[in-house]
Amino acid sequence: MPPAGSPRFLIGVSHKMYFSHARTVDWCRDVAAIARDHPAIADGTVELFVIPTYLSVPAALEAFQSVALVGAQDLSTEDSGAYTGEVSGSEIAELGCRVVEVGHAERRRLFGETDEIVASKTDAALRNGLDPVLCIGEAVRTTADDAIADCTAQIASALEPSRTAGHHGRVIVAYEPHWAIGASEPASAEYIGTVCSALREYVGSLSDFPGSVVIYGGSAGPGLLGEIADSVDGMFLGRFAHDPEAVRVILDEAADAAT
């Protein structure tokens, strides 16, 4: 649960690798215009973050300025050195990013990222002053109790190096059941609510990481937030936010749910 005085909802969008740079620039300008005029942003009900591809980060920073946070989709476990093709958390922060995605299911499945790598990247984010968007979720459809146990263990594992090193900060836990990513619809509202309520309770007990929150992803889109608002701190959107007007709809839903 966000601390008192913090935005009620955190809404994030990751572009993955769907957009060209030109389309990203257009999207960012359109969404920035929507966010700049939206009362949910203006009154602090919603905090918005956007995660484009690396090459589009500077353009996104220019477009959003004070109306949304900008982040990167991945980072290196290391801060500098001979790591061709990697991008460090220190450089991401230097550009002005505030968040960075860590441990997405596609990174785990396609690029072999282990729990140990995810933990190292989470610590790299925190020690560089970035809020990790820590993606967790059960691999197969199961019971809510089993999902809670699995996901709680994933969070604990990811945060252990930071806890040991004394690196603190806000952690944005993005609960995305792997089996729901890319599906035609998300998990049921009842299932999401049960799992996210338990994860929020767990995350709220992590005194080393104050202000940490739990948001839901995994085929999240318009129409869902109103059903799960009491159980989550926000949503993490993908392809269902490709249309800027969909972002407006979700901001409207957040404003309604917060009243």
UniProtKB/TrEMBL annotation:
Q: Which family does it belong to?
A: Belongs to the triosephosphate isomerase family.
Protein's pathway = Carbohydrate biosynthesis; gluconeogenesis; Carbohydrate degradation; glycolysis; D-glyceraldehyde 3-phosphate from glycerone phosphate: step 1/1
One GO molecular function term?
triose-phosphate isomerase activity
Any idea what this protein is called?
Answer: Triosephosphate isomerase
Q: Which Pfam families match?
A: TIM (PF00121)
One GO biological process term: glyceraldehyde-3-phosphate biosynthetic process
Q: Which GO terms describe its cellular component?
A: cytosol
EC main group: isomerase
Keyword check for Secreted, yes or no: no
Note the subunit structure.
Homodimer.
Q: Which organism is it from?
A: Mycetocola zhujimingii
EC number(s) on file: 5.3.1.1
Q: Sorted alphabetically, which keywords does the UniProt record give?
A: Cytoplasm, Gluconeogenesis, Glycolysis, Isomerase
Q: For this protein, what reaction is catalysed?
A: D-glyceraldehyde 3-phosphate = dihydroxyacetone phosphate
